[in-house]
Amino acid sequence: MSKTMLAAVLHGIKDLRVDERPVPELEPGQVLVRVRRGGICGSDVHYFQEGRFGSFAVTAPFVLGHEVTGEVWAVSDGVSQPAVGQRVVVNPARQCGHCDYCRSGRGNLCRNVRMLGSASTKPPTHGGFSEYLLVGAEQCFPLPPQIDDGLGAMLEPFAVALHALKRAGSVAGKQVLVTGGGPIGLLTAIAARACGATTVAVTDPEAERRRMAVQVGADSALDPTDASFKDQVTALTGDGFDLLFEASGAPPALKQAFEVVRRGGTLVQIGVFSAPEIALPVNQLLVRELQFVGSFRYGNVWEEAIRLVASGRVNLQPLISRVFPLRQAADALALACAKTGVVKVQLDLL
Ligand SMILES: [Zn+2]
Ligand SMILES: [Zn+2]
User: Fold this and answer.
1) What distance in angstroms lies between residue 237's CA and the mean position of ligand 2's atoms?
2) DSSP label at 132?
3) Ligand 2: centre distance to CA 160 (Å)
4) Which of 97, 127, 223, 243 has a CA positioned 20 to 30 A from the CA of residue 79?
């Protein structure tokens, strides 16, 4: 086996190069994955376009990517699962397993977490857009044959959506609005439908994204800039939405969310804002007893996500817009930056 591999390395803003890097060496408890498919996430796009994602600024060149499937290539001594040859999806967040949050079942808040392809650490942690990837055995979830490499690489963003649903409490029978028709918004709408929401609506100013929302199963898609928007909400829900998932990270969307959620309703924040602070109608929280909760990455939802996709209860295939070979990673990132006409762009690393 070659000692070097190709990887998509971000050197600076809009400077993505396919570099030769050493294949990582096995360490105790770890497995070497031959990466097969990688999805480009909104965070990869932000790092590529702006050199930062929310409050995480890039401080050194690093390999992008965290939505990956692959085949287990080698395992260190003492690792019994997964086995060599097993196809897996990788949980890109490596939790320490022993801090107070890990021990209390909230590993997504782990004090020592390391996230693949993320500038949340300094220096940044290298990601999965590389031919080989070293991860903890516990980060690998076996893929059943019904889930191919492309669908498998959709499981990470789908896990984000499923975790957001858990943060909202029960979804069954509820009227749900998702603000923002990007990949996470669409996946949240799909997940809400699968979990029994009676009404699922999506808002987005872009007509193309609204069309996509309806195509993947939303009951309606509304233009939040339309003068009759609030009348449309009333016609659809009567008194407003029970649950609202803010998946755009756009300040006007969150402000509007407070106006269309019903009394006693819940707002879940999933979208990441570029601005560190924005103005909000906070007294609404009090007088209408709203709940405003954050949702960060994913808790223990991976196996459920795999079951939902494998069973056919949710179909994520329509969200995969284009697949590029690794060597064209820069073109793939450039296309992923487009706001319309494309949902999920993936890299084929085989
Ligand atoms: Zn992602
Ligand atoms: Zn921990």
Assistant:
1) 41
2) E
3) 19
4) 127
Encoding tokens for residue 116?
């693949």
Please give the span between the terminal C-alpha atoms of the chain, in angstroms, as a whole number: 15
Q: Which are the contacts of 305, defined by CB distance < 8 A and separation ≥ 6? A: 155, 158, 159, 162
Nearest ligand to residue 114 Cα? 2
Q: Hey, what are 121's tokens?
A: 């650490």
DSSP codes, 85-126: T-EEEE--EE--SSSHHHHTT-GGG-TT-EETTBTTSSSPBP
Whole-number Å distance, alpha carbon 106 to ligand 2 midpoint, is 8
Dist. CA 59 → ligand 2 center (Å) = 24
Tokens representing 84 are: 């060599």
Task: Find the ligand nearest to 65 CA.
Answer: 1
* Mean pLDDT estimate for the chain: 95
Reported pTM: 0.95
pLDDT band at 214 (very low <50, low <70, confident <90, very high): very high
Nearest ligand atom owner, CA of 111: 2
